[in-house]
């Protein structure tokens, strides 16, 4: 199978997980003709491939053109990492106005005419082209990536999974704290007990499984939601990540959904820091998505 790895605007962390697979990845290169991977191979042009692993987001016109070209040359396209799947951390830039973002990046007095042609607002890659499979994670863990690659290279692209991080979590349940939310800076969680029930904002009930509940089970810290919303939250009948986040956290903490919303001082960073670019979240803002986009120099 001919394989390529392409990176759009990103921190390149997902590619480094590929490298960290070491022997496994090098065997894979040998067996599967990895023909394009700019971080590893000196190959200038993306050739036609059977499988493309795509990392990052569309932040400017160059990203968009490369994505469109890549889609035309790839039989199957995989969104690798949470940036590609849900916009990831770069989506948080949407919290400031376009003008402010421009000034922060290019200095006072900068205008859109001086900026590279691009998108004023960020969207996941499947807002632009069709995506055949998603492997979220910031970055996806090594085992997760290996399992995914084994399936993908045998011609079976894994479908999305429906369970949540809670289903993999090893902590034990305890009576919910009804005293409101606590922050890690001001309180120390009790080992082995559900963090959400102790009052820490843990996104486990909303976040898709696959990481083995790494943060709560291995490090005793809340899940930040880096694998993105689980399918249940995105698909009917819920389809409203904002509302469903409040509902699920309310159920686990014994608070009302309204109280959960009020107590989270910074909802975007608390709940949606990895998926603020997700169209289902954005559609519910006044004006929707369309006003954030302008044509990419077409
Ligand atoms: S998903 Fe995370 S690790 Fe991967 S490119 Fe985006 S920010 Fe970096
Ligand atoms: S809410 Fe967090 S700590 Fe509790 S079971 Fe779910 S993932 Fe584990
Ligand atoms: S527990 Fe949550 S934040 Fe931690 S790796 Fe898993 S999905 Fe990401």
Describe the structure.
With 298 residues, the chain is of the alpha/beta class. The protein folds into two domains: 3-153, NADH:ubiquinone oxidoreductase-like, 20kDa subunit (Rossmann fold, 3-Layer(aba) Sandwich); 165-265, no CATH class. The protein is 32% helix and 8% strand. It has twelve helices and five strands. The chain has a five-stranded parallel sheet with strand order 2-1-3-4-5. Helix 3 links the parallel strand 3 (49-55) and strand 4. Helix 9 (241-253) packs across helix 10. One iron/sulfur cluster is lined by residues 10-11, 13-14, 55-56, 81-83, 88-89, 138-139.
List the helices and strands and how they pair.
Layout: E1 3-7, H1 13-20, H2 23-32, E2 34-36, E3 49-55, H3 61-73, E4 74-80, H4 82-86, H5 98-106, E5 133-135, H6 142-153, H7 214-219, H8 231-234, H9 241-253, H10 257-263, H11 267-271, H12 279-282
Helix pairs in contact: 9-10
One iron/sulfur cluster (SF4) binds at residues 10-11, 13-14, 55-56, 81-83, 88-89, 138-139.
